[in-house]
Design a protein that fits this description.
With 133 residues, the chain is of the alpha+beta class. The chain has one domain. It contains 2 helices and 4 strands; from the N terminus they run αββββα. It has a two-stranded antiparallel sheet with strand order 1-2. A hairpin with a 2-residue loop joins strand 1 and strand 2. Helix 1 packs antiparallel against helix 2. The longest helix has 37 residues. It starts with a helix and ends with a helix.
């Protein structure tokens, strides 16, 4: 694999991790979105990644977005304006602990790929310096 191949592979990882972080931020932002019981709850977003191979260079890409359950969870809040006659409203079924764990994994993956880009760039610059000597 060439230096540019390493940068391309790491760049594809950066894109996937950024999309994953975007999905996590959407999930966390909407975890307290209330809906009436006759409506669907906010559906959590999950990034589906797949390996890509272009000749000698590999990488990864976003293959799609999977959605969580639209059923959500029913919460008894009789004073809420969207409550049904029994006093229930619908919240998304999103677990904050799980989302935070995923966020840490995505951040670490993003950081690792950014470090690869930096190291590949330094290697390329060192090779140019050798050529100038």
């Amino acid at each position: 694999m060439t230096t540019f191949g390493a940068i391309g592979t790491a760049a594809s990882g950066l894109t996937v991790y950024r999309k994953w972080l975007d999905a996590i931020s959407d999930n966390i932002s909407n975890m307290n979105t209330v809906r009436a019981t006759d409506e669907e709850a906010f559906q959590a977003r999950y990034v589906i990644a797949q390996a890509v191979e272009n000749g000698t260079q590999g990488g990864v890409q976003v293959a799609g977005i999977a959605y969580g359950s639209a059923e959500g969870r029913m919460v008894y809040e009789p004073g809420h304006p969207l409550a049904d006659p029994e006093g229930y409203v619908r919240y998304p079924d999103i677990d904050m602990a799980s989302q935070m764990t995923q966020m840490i994994m995505a951040q670490r993956g993003y950081q690792a790929n950014a470090a690869i880009v930096d190291r590949a760039k330094e290697t390329y610059q060192a090779a140019l310096q050798i050529g100038r000597s």
